[in-house]
Write a structure and sequence with these properties.
Length: about 425
Amino acid sequence: MADNHTAKRDEFYETISTFWDRLYGMEYALYDCLELSDTDVADIRTATKEAYNVYKKMVRLIRQASDETLIDLGFPGKALEFLRMQLLPYETVIGRFDFVQTKDGLKILEFNADTPTFIRELFDVNGHVCQEFRMTNPNAGEDDYLGKSIRNSVFHCARQIGVTDHPYVVFTAHEEDVEDRETMMYLMNVSQIKGARFVPLSMLQVVAGDGVYDSEGMRIDVVYRHTYPLEALLEDVTDDEYPIGIEFMRLVERRKVGMLNPVSAFLMQSKAVMAAIWGMHEQRHPLFTEEEHKVISRYFLPTYLDEEPFLASGVTYVSKPAFGREGDTVEVRRQGETLFQQKAKSYAQYVKVFQQYVDLPSADVQTEIGTVQAHLLIGSFVVNEKPSAFGIRAGAQITDNLSYFLPCGVKGANEWT
């Protein structure tokens, strides 16, 4: 039975070129389709829109904050000179909320506003799986919107640095990372920007005070570094200790080169922003309207910059770094004791935030090894400030880089896309 499922799965995914249906030699994309209702779809889009509007208002306040406050919110010292830059009419081009469905409705675990992956899976592959399983794809048409949004953002970015003719746009990533590389290739292809190229990060030439060039000496107008986190870029140095990342950011600051996602996306990225939002909500701060306080109460979990509130209440909570990915350095704790955690501790140097723990719902999913029970996490994209594609990760209680991509669809009356 399992062998037959694997054969059908492999035959199907072989039809989708350059897609990483397996990662680290293991099954990643499932040959299965989770059934959602129209209400589920509407709820996710509403939550995404309303939560983003709260974040957008908050980040405008944070941009005016003192350096000391920014440090308290977990931003690295090296970022301070750049954090207040605003070169686009959007705070982020592509961001992704992670929601969990609880008995009290959808709750936000985090907002990856700067470098979210899971893009091709939801904007492209989910539709192919829905067609295979005769379901309606809830993300139909979002790939076209994504392409238009990238083109629009590139246009704005180029104008901000004084480029009035057609800009030379480079999409970049670590070439050896298949997921990062192919995500950037997908974004480049869906954007349909004339003359755009993929150039590996290692091939970019940063000339201090002048500009950024490709390996052939062509000056780059806009660098799309979507999978390269800004906190990593700021630490980037050459073999001879030249601070290439800082010099690149100074070129962005001096409008010698454009960069997407913009710095404002990084300003939203710190998980400590959730703590700031929750703290202001508890104080009924007038920054937020009564309706926005209701939104915060509905979708946000109690989140703090210290664990004292949870130690006092005895409530189970999660310790997570302000900057971190794939569940790395995350611990589930009660009364200061660790209940379970990820082995990886790559982000231990960052400020920690403490968030009320909620169980991820579970469902039976079809895998190569048979039916397994997996915990479900909803990833929902914001593209140029509008709700866009969403989808499901299925895995452990702490979602990590070994979690499955579980396609999802809506049962339609013989109608599918």
